[in-house]
Specification:
It is a single chain. The chain is an alpha/beta fold. The chain is 33% helix and 31% strand.
């Protein structure tokens, strides 16, 4: 089984339990800043999961589409956010038109992409976003491990692929893929590990 499939199957398995634990809006300051700099309302959420961020976009009047590879997560999302549009899709190769969206949102999703594949995913995000469109990406800061499968005991045992970055490492990847970085920030999660999230607001 390939690593991408392993991560998707994990999210299918844990969808209901995970979404119950992860439905409090997390990216509050980030969303407020994103909303203040985007021009337009048509948004694609790449790796939307169980629809936590979908709820916030819909409440704020956005024309929202969420895509995810996990059918289980999408089922929860469409039940929780009936006004959102959701589609099962690998966001490295979507079916959308060039320049179809005013911006994209990728909170905690690119971190499941192997580093060798991340440029292709960024190019696809760029393709479906209009020129000058605004993107948001958050990934976990590297503190030891570079990338690989992580097995955890929660939810009855799960395996997911993670890629970790330093702030400059991911900034350079963005620049290599012709994104300009509008703002970088760090968001420290109030969890046991005090996880640092690296946040990037970018323009295509």
């Amino acid at each position: 089984m390939d690593i991408k499939q392993k991560t998707v199957e994990t999210y299918d398995k844990i969808a209901s339990g995970y979404s119950a634990d992860h439905f409090t809006h997390f990216w509050i300051e980030e969303f407020d800043f994103y909303k203040s700099i985007i021009n337009g309302k048509k948004i694609i959420d790449l790796g939307c999961g169980a629809g936590r961020d979908a709820a916030v976009f819909v409440e704020n009047g956005f024309d929202y589409t969420g895509v995810d590879a996990s059918e289980g997560m999408l089922k929860v999302a469409s039940e929780r956010v009936p006004k959102g549009k959701f589609q099962k899709m690998d966001f490295s190769k979507t079916i959308f038109q060039d320049g179809e969206f005013d911006g994209f949102w990728a909170a905690a999703s690119f971190l499941h992409i192997p580093k060798k594949d991340v440029a292709g995913v960024l190019q696809e995000a760029k393709r479906i976003t209009k020129n000058g469109g605004i993107g948001f990406i958050s990934v976990k800061e590297k503190s030891g491990m570079d990338e690989g499968i992580i097995d955890e005991n929660k939810y009855g045992g799960i395996s997911r692929y993670f890629s970790f970055y330093t702030q400059d490492e991911f900034k350079n990847i963005l620049k290599q893929n012709d994104f300009s970085v509008v703002k970088m920030s760090m968001h420290t999660e109030d969890d046991e590990r005090k996880t640092n999230w690296l946040c990037y607001f970018i323009k295509s």
